[in-house]
Task: structure prediction
Amino acid sequence: MNYEQPNLPYDLDALAPAISAETISFHYGKHEKAYIDNLNRLIKGTEYEDMELEDIITHAKGALFNNASQAWNHIFYFFTFSPDGSREPSGELRKAIDRDFGSFDKFKEAFVDAGVGLFGSGWVWLSRDDDGKLLITQGSNAGNPLTEGLTPLLTFDVWEHAYYLDYQNRRADALRALWDIVDWDIVEARY
Ligand code: MN
Result:
């Protein structure tokens, strides 16, 4: 199987000013493309060749895990955003956020704090466990909650390549700006 990079469902400049067209062009067009190219190269002729990407992530180690997980994480990240989606959760997900974090505002604060507090490169995640309880977790480098048996709902990329062109060292500003482009209908569909 050869993994192909899906086209984004919005124009390169559609998420500005939260994420500029230049950042999307490099981040999705170059960084994510490289992870997918590496993944295809690493699985060729191995037992992983016909595995689902999620199964590679939960079974592989080392370079294959890193590239498979980064390939998956970036698609999950970029396909969470839209220029004109729902800017607040509703329904059962909203009830769970209020129950597990106190309020939507408190959730957003805790999520950004977890992203800012992650040392070095990685991801901050909102996931649910098998009982429907919500958790915020940090994943270094290519970390992915699938490896902990959790169901990922939302992630923010905190690698410098995700924000340095637009925000330089201001990671907190970069993460807070993403609340303007998260489409909560997409997050809810994952819940
Ligand atoms: Mn990235």
Remarks:
- Residues 77 and 105 are 21 Å apart (CA to CA).
